[in-house]
Amino acid sequence: MRITDKNALVELTSYLRGTENAAQKQDVNVKETSKTAADRVDISQRSKDIQKAREAVEAVPDVRENKVNDIKKSIEDKTYNVKGEAVANSIIKKSLIDTVL
Questions:
Q1: Which of 24, 29, 84, 90 could form a disulfide with 10, with the two C-beta atoms 3.0–4.6 Å apart?
Q2: Domain coverage including residue 86
Q3: Residues 7, 33 contacting (CB under 8 angstroms)
Q4: What is the pTM (predicted TM-score) of this model?
Q5: What are the φ/ψ torsions at residue 3 (nearest 5 degrees)?
């Protein structure tokens, strides 16, 4: 994202130079820039793509309700079996991914 603000640039330059009459210069520059240009914000294509991706992620529910309901039903029916080897593999896999990232 690029933000152009000529007034801020004039103020910063005046401050860095340590001039005492920065206010007077700003008034003159404000009048000149207001005639020629306005403040402008340019948003890059990458920023637009990131915003679209963020909106897509926010549209997806945090919980997969159909899967949760299936597991709840299996627990209530006492047919839910957890394989220890599958749990261990999942833990190791996630641990390795976290270490790499």
A1: 29
A2: 63-100
A3: yes
A4: 0.33
A5: -120, 125
